[in-house]
Specification:
Strand content: 15-25%
Mean pLDDT: 94
Bound molecules: histidyl-adenosine monophosphate
Helix content: 25-40%
Shape: elongated
Distance between the termini: 44 Å
Structural class: alpha+beta
Largest sheet: 8 strands, mixed
Low-confidence stretches: none
């Protein structure tokens, strides 16, 4: 026997219930976001590496450690997308899609993302995101509508105990003032900081606040807080965000260490966490970004967006697929196979889920196969049925072993009635 081949570390196959869960989450998000005015955008999985380097920041973990970058056969440096925001901005610019503050764009996307991270619970090297970008209309209202959309989706899929962690990084001026103060503070502890943080002190001190190193975390406790450095405009903007969250009764906490892992954020940043003991990492996150579209040659409009991690949602939701009445078409002998085959097609054409049982070498075996496949109604065609153009309906697991023979022309109608009864009783 040849050796079993496994997928690449940190990547996994979805099938069966996992696929239904994935589809359910994507469908729910698509429906709810359509109500908010979002439309789907489909962008390539691979982009020029520069797209991500330029926008996510050289010092971000994603760019410095986690990108799947390759030189392709034509000598281009390309990267499997680690996230979707940069690609959406590139697409708006490449396609010359018009956007301004009076004519915003709202895009939703979903699919696989790739980060060469250490695999662990809820963290993979190929994972899936559902992302949303609202470009144009810079205001606390759009920030909170973005958060509200995420909360609606999370609630709808059954995650009722979601808490929004929210912060403001301010605009350019506030940020500069804050960064100067941060550097002054961290300089005092320069020798105690982790190697990563020492490097960040020079290049991007804000990112030290995001460090997972235990000594860095202790030092972070007394670091200056961004809220004290927001100028009046930025402070008023952030206060309005909080007031609107209150108005919508959204459960949130202000988390002043929430700088997020990617460099493009300005003003409001947020993450979604569950209070459940089961999982403490973020289910999703996002925030406002100024200047990102312009970086890709588009117009100077701000945007706000977020992405949800599908594997993390799949892990937490209690999903029960809808049970449909499943029908099996069973021929008694080879003589009736053609007729069974045609009945199967007729039912499929009438949107009925059914399976033609072609295996097994006698009726008993075929019935067993149908039951194994989860069919609860058997349509049996034997010699008699063939002769008088009828079908015998038998319910699986029916104590009274009720069977009824009906004219073939009435089968579709009868199955539709039975499907409704089935739905009501499950
Ligand atoms: P992010 O916080 O890097 O943001 O990722 C969003 C979500 O993707 C995370 O909260 C998490 O649920 C999921 N995720 C990230 N990495 C992994 C992984 N290795 N394995 C499993 N799940 C993961 C972004 O990607 C931004 N583009 C979001 C955004 C959109 N900001 C503005 N617009």
């Amino acid at each position: 026997m040849s050796q079993r081949i496994n997928p690449i570390r940190g990547m996994k196959d979805f099938y069966g219930l996992d696929c239904s869960k994935y589809q359910y989450i994507v469908d729910t998000a698509t429906q709810i976001s359509a109500r908010y005015g979002y439309q789907l955008i489909e962008i390539p999985i691979v982009e020029n590496t520069e797209i991500f380097q330029r926008s996510l920041g050289d010092e971000s973990d994603v760019v410095s450690k986690e990108m799947y970058s390759f030189i392709d056969k034509g000598g281009e440096n390309i990267t499997l997308r680690p996230e979707g925001t940069a690609g959406v901005m590139r697409a708006i610019s490449s396609n010359g899609i018009f956007v301004n503050d009076n004519q915003p764009l709202k895009f939703m996307y979903y699919g696989p993302m790739f980060r060469y991270d250490r695999p662990q619970k809820g963290r993979y090297r190929q994972f899936h995101q559902i992302g949303f970008e609202h470009i144009g209309e810079k205001s606390p209202y759009t920030d909170v509508l973005s958060i509200a959309l995420a909360v609606d989706i999370l609630h709808e899929i059954g995650l009722a105990d979601v808490c929004v962690h929210v912060n403001s990084l301010g605009g350019f001026d506030s940020r500069q003032l804050y960064t100067t103060e941060l550097v002054k503070y961290f300089k005092k502890f320069e020798n105690e900081l982790s190697e990563d943080s020492k490097r960040r002190l020079l290049k991007n001190p804000l990112r030290i606040l995001d460090s997972k190193d235990s000594r860095d975390c202790e030092i972070n406790l007394n670091a200056p807080k961004i809220r004290n450095y927001l100028n009046e405009h930025d402070a008023t903007y952030f206060q309005k965000v909080l007031d609107l969250l209150d108005l919508l009764d959204i459960n949130y906490i202000v988390d002043q260490k929430l700088v997020r892992g990617l460099d493009y954020y300005t003003h409001t940043t947020f993450e979604f966490k569950t209070n459940s003991e089961q999982y403490s990492d973020a289910l999703g996150g996002g925030g406002r970004y100024d200047g990102l579209l312009e970086m890709f040659g588009g117009s100077d409009v701000s945007g706000v967006g977020f992405a949800l991690g599908v594997e993390r949602l799949m892990m937490l939701i209690d999903y029960k697929p809808t049970v449909l009445l499943k029908v099996a078409i069973v021929a008694v002998s080879a003589n009736e196979f053609d007729s069974a085959f045609m009945l199967n097609k007729e039912l499929l054409d009438n949107s009925i889920s059914c399976e033609l049982i072609t295996g097994g070498n006698n009726l008993k075996k075929r019935v067993e196969l149908a039951v194994k496949r989860g069919c609860s109604l058997l349509l049996i065609i034997g010699n008699d049925e063939l002769k008088d153009n009828s079908v015998t309906l038998t319910r699986v697991n029916d104590k009274d072993n009720r069977s009824v023979t009906i004219p073939r022309y009435s089968v579709v109608l009868r199955i539709n009635e039975l499907s409704q009864e089935f739905r009501h009783s499950h």
